Amino acid sequence: MLDINYIRQNPDEVVAMLHQRQLASEEPKVAQLLDFDRERKGLVQRSDDLKALRNKVSKEIADIKKSGIGSSEELIGQMKSVSEEIAGMNGLLAALEEQIESILLELPNKLHPSVPSGRSADDNQLFGEPVSFPYTFDFPVKNHLELGKALKILDFERGAKVCGAGFPVYMGKGARLERALINFMLDCHTERHGYTEVFPPFFVNRESLRGTGQWPKFADQVYHMEEDDLYAIPTAEVPVTNLHRGEMLDVRALPICYAAYSACFRREAGSYGKDTRGFLRVHQFNKVEMVKFTRPEESYEALEKIRSNAEAILTALKIPYRVLLLCSGDISANATKCYDIEVWSPAEQKYLEASSCSNFEDYQARRANIRFKPESNAKPEFVHTLNGSGLATSRLMVSMLEHYQTAEGSVMVPEVLRHYTRFDEITQAAE
Question: Which residues are annotated as catalytic?
Answer without folding.
Answer: 266, 281, 353, 356, 395
